[in-house]
Amino acid sequence: MNDNIFSGLEKLGFNDIINVDLYNDIKTKKEKSSDNSKKISKQGSYLYNKEIICPVCNTAFKAKAVKTSSYRVLSRDTDFFTRYAVINPYFYDIWLCNSCGYASMKVDFFKIKSYKINEIKTSITSKWKPREYPEVYDVDIAIERYKLALLNYYVIESVASKKAMACLKIAWMYRLKNDSKNELIFLGHALTGIEEAFFKEDFPIYGMDRYTTMYLIGELNHKLSNYDKALLWFSKVIVQPGVKYKIKELARDQREYIKLNYLSENKIESKENENEKSTKDHSISKKNFINKFFK
Ligand SMILES: [Zn+2]
Q1: Which of 4, 38, 120, 274 is deepest in the core (most CB within 10 A)?
Q2: pLDDT above 70: percentage of residues in the chain
Q3: Cα–ligand 1 centroid distance for 251 (angstroms)
């Protein structure tokens, strides 16, 4: 079967009519594509260039930045992913030096220690092929840039929280694409790193205090279907004095959500007893990570 319904007209000069979608008007298509380019040029107007000097190779380059006046928050997910209208600041979170391939989240960009610079030169720059990016970034570009930053963090053996935060943001980008398989893979890596950071690093971690981090560990466990662990972490947040009201509320809400949706009545009871027991006596929990927590 010939897919080209206009075959036979080539000799009349119409040899470039391929992939015809007969009932989708050319005009509508053109409008759609012009709508799209309008959207892109509108997004471009929310951006400006920031002059940066690369701490690895000293080259000056321009990083795209979102004008703070153009942030429009739509909503926040339970693991702190913020959804934005108009333009997505996460897309511009990574600064990348196109000369040497050094990349990181912008808050970390200048924090690279001088003795790590050679590691970037050896493991990144030696292989780096410069890449031209369009004026306006999309979710796929964001994923590529976050992954490049993650590779940089890995190469210079950054602390767990940096790698974890990059993984968390990659997971969020996959969420935007409704790619739950990859989202869960990166949420898993994020959880591993945030748990390690919780026990080893000083707070705040990327702006999160101890209890906010505990809540996030609970919520990542929840998203990864580790309901028992999630409940334990939420309970710890709920019973601690001095926790921000908003975080306590979130922990309560998510605990209720898990109980209602995933646990049978018997299981809830035993879970409640376990939680009560472990809040009364810190040393009796059988769970290793709880023991670690109270060290
Ligand atoms: Zn550089």
Answers
A1: 120
A2: 84
A3: 42
